[in-house]
Amino acid sequence: LSRTAPNIFHSFERLAERLAHTDKTRCELENLKKIGNFDEKKEKLIQFVKENLKTHPHWLLLYDNVENLVEIQKYFPQDPLISGKGKVLITTRDSNVRNHKYVTASFPINELTSDEKFNLFNKILNQDETPFENHSSQEETKAFLEQLPSFPLDVSVAAYYIKTTKVSYANYLEKLHSYNDDFSKLQESILAETGDYTKVRYNIVMLSLEKLLQTNKEFGELLFFISLLNAQGIPIDLLKSYKQELMVESFIHNLQKYSLIEHTLFSKNGVPTFSFHRDVQEAFLIYFTKIFNLNTNQDLLLSFIRTLEQYTESAFKQGSLEKLKLLIMHYKIFLSHGSWVTDSMKASMYATKGYIYIHLNYYEKALNNLKKSLLNLEKSALPNDYLKAKVLVHLGIATKKLGDREKAKLLIEEALNIYQTAGITNPEEIGRALLNLGDIYRLLGDYQTSRELLERSLSKYAHVREENSPNVARALLYLGVVHKELGHYVQAKAILEESLFIYRTKLSHDHLRLARVLTEIGHVEKELGDFEKAKELTQQSLAIYQKNLEPDHIDIAWVLSYLAQLYNDLGNYTEAKNLLEKSLAVHRNHYSETHPEVAWVLLHLGNTYKNMGLFSEAQRVLEESLASHELYYGKNHLETARVLVNIGDLYALSGSLKKSETALYRALKIYKLTPHPDQVRCLKLLTKWDKKFKGESSSPR
After folding, report:
1. Quick check: 461 and 475 in contact, CB under 8 A?
2. Contact residues for 312 (Cβ-Cβ < 8 A; gap 6+)
3. What average pLDDT does this structure show over 127-151?
4. Alpha-carbon distance 659 to 472, whole Å?
5. What percent of the chain has pLDDT over 90?
6. What's the pLDDT band for 497 if we cut at 50, 70, 90?
7. DSSP assignment, residue 98?
8. Are 102 and 74 in contact (CB under 8 A)?
9. How many angstroms separate the CA atoms of 157 and 280, rounded?
10. Three-state SS across 5-17?
């Protein structure tokens, strides 16, 4: 865990993620994260960790390099009845910690004696099969070591460095003690602490840096580039997109040679990365800030940003979610260097960060970053109509996913207007705007306009249709969904399967975009009567969403509703009810109470209650769904008719024949205006209940 209170909170956040290994604790943690008041969230997070430590008997918490014990003592588990039995270990330079009331034992790390320093130094030099050829005498070595701080770290690093670089003792000491202004600032931060190994570490970094630059001067730009990124998980391919492959491989080799980076590692999806310590990164940044004056050398910074954005674009095209997840933190750290990054640079980077969040289905975060992009565009002295329009399109996408469809429509229409006014003819971006606007019109219930816009979008992509572009797949997906909503199931299936083919050609087997089209094809298969195929496809989709998203993500809740419909049709009403109630809770947390997505879940939950014979609960839920549908779509829309058919059947089953007849004939009237396969079910129900309807005074037909 980190050493200061601000950092330890973030460490506790990561620890809480590790401790939340059940659905219940993960749900509790996600709810905790949504607390707006920071102090309240912090207190509850601390309590969450303390309570869940109990599931790990004999736990050990390590608080490393603590600077102020008083600041962090609230993070200590103190009651074994709450946290179970465990131990807290603190490392610190402050010897006064031993006097604290919570400290039951202390173990001081004493300075090495002259003999211990000499033995450790020589052991490192000669630990390999081929001993180090040390031409210095024993007395010279001891004299050299006397000038080093008497701590294992300083002796070890000196030994490893001399062994690797073959520099002389005199050369090493000269570098070690040649402090500069930047190093003095680092020294000032530890004046109150005992031990001064930090300055040794800093100078060793500088010595290694010199060796790197002597090896290849172009390493300087690479070092500066990585000093502006997150210190953890730097993609090696990102550097290869900036410099030649052989140079980057030599660069990584030399970083390892001088122990400046942690060992290279591979993420779970095989993205080669490396990491290095934040102190080393800070030393790099201080050094290169002087060498490359960014206030006058903006071209270098622009080249870094272009490389980062081009690498991101390639990750989009590859469908690499793992790369995109890594890149989020790199954008965040890069943007934190605000004194050098201009408004126009920030606008571009916040925009790309927003695009990444949309690709990862984190729409609230996307919205926030895209808004920051627009704010920086307004402040920038350089107008950029193309970027503004593109940001507005993505802002519309995020807004659509967050439920405000009317606002989303206005945003994308504004973007299209900018494209037209500015004379921008980029077919890919205009096609993206059209396909998303088409989807919004579908969600608003205007299927005809939606279909026209989607077909226009596909015409924009005509030049890349044969290349199986993911944007073509997206347009086909949305067009297939429109045909599904209109009841054109055979046509919808053919279009959706074309979309699926493209996605499978271009994306990984567990990509989120693939999951969406699998669900839609599954729904079409259900409507066509192949319930087992529908179930198989929907479960495949659910598995992809669950692999990539948190348990209470809205997209998982969406798939659960479709799976529940299948269970309903297959007669497994209890499982359908459980899934729909879980989905409804997430939808209500994500949307307003009268939002059509909530009403959609209520419709299917009401049907399930009806099938279970829970007529009272079914009536309450279906009437709520009907009210929301009428409010959003109007009383004469296909979506409203769908609810009327189901509520009409319920009324008849529960004996409210007059209400049933009214609802079913209202639905039939809508279907006559807009034909749909559900009209057959409506007619069958009217036939089924006709004799009972005639037994009462019928309402006007």
Report:
1. yes
2. 324, 327, 352, 355, 356
3. 77
4. 46
5. 51
6. very high
7. G
8. no
9. 14
10. HHHHHHHHHHHHH
Mean pLDDT along residues 528-540: 95
Helices 343-359 and 385-401 pack at an angle, to 10 degrees, of 30
Tokens of 608: 């399930």
Q: Is 61 within 8 Å of 87 (Cβ atoms)?
A: yes
Give Cα 451 distance to the centre of its chain: 32
242's CB contacts (< 8 A; 6+ apart) are: 221, 222, 225, 248, 303, 304, 307
Mean pLDDT of the chain: 86
Reported as a pLDDT band with limits 50, 70 and 90, residue 99 is: low
d(CA 527, CA 484): 9
- Residues 6 or more apart whose Cβ sits within 8 Å of residue 407: 399
* Biggest CA-to-CA distance, the chain: 116
Sign of dihedral through CA atoms 21, 27, 32, 35? positive
Q: What is the pLDDT of residues 329-343, one digit of tens each?
A: 999 999 998 778 899
SS3 274: strand
DSSP, res 125: H
Distance (Å, whole) CA 82 – CA 85: 9
Cβ neighbours for 274, distance < 8 A, ≥ 6 positions apart: 234, 236, 252, 255, 261, 262, 263, 264, 265
The amino acid occupying position 576 is: A
Q: pLDDT band for position 197 (50/70/90)? A: very low
In the 3-class helix/strand/coil scheme, how is 400-432 assigned residue by residue? Answer: HHCCCHHHHHHHHHHHHHHHHHCCCCCHHHHHH
Burial of 123 (0-12, 13-18, 19+ CB in 10 A): exposed
Confirm if 416 and 401 have CB atoms less than 8 A apart: no
d(CA 492, CA 484): 5
Q: What is the C-alpha separation between 361 and 554, in angstroms, rounded? A: 9
Tokens read off for 220: 């300087």
Helices (H), 258-320: 278-291, 298-318
Residues 6+ apart with CB under 8 A from 698: 661
Under the banding of pLDDT at 50, 70 and 90, the label for residue 695 is low
Give kind and range of the element (H or E) at residue 154: helix 152-165
